[in-house]
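Help needed: design a sequence for this.
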């Protein structure tokens, strides 16, 4: 399992951190994982699955 940093997530998804936070709050994006008091990450496979859903929806 790989955890994505905020920087890696932004490169993969191309959304602003604020928009990602809004999607998370609405339940439309994978939830972040609290790694420490000041550190978060996202499970790479969950994000890739989310992206795949978007790709399939366009067909």
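Sure. Designed sequence:
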């Amino acid at each position: 399992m790989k955890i994505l940093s905020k920087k890696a997530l932004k490169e993969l998804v191309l959304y602003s951190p604020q928009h990602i936070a809004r999607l998370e709050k609405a339940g439309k994006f994978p939830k972040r994982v609290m790694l420490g008091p000041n550190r978060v990450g996202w499970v790479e496979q969950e994000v890739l699955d989310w992206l795949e859903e978007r790709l399939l929806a366009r067909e």
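DSSP finds three helices and three strands in the chain.
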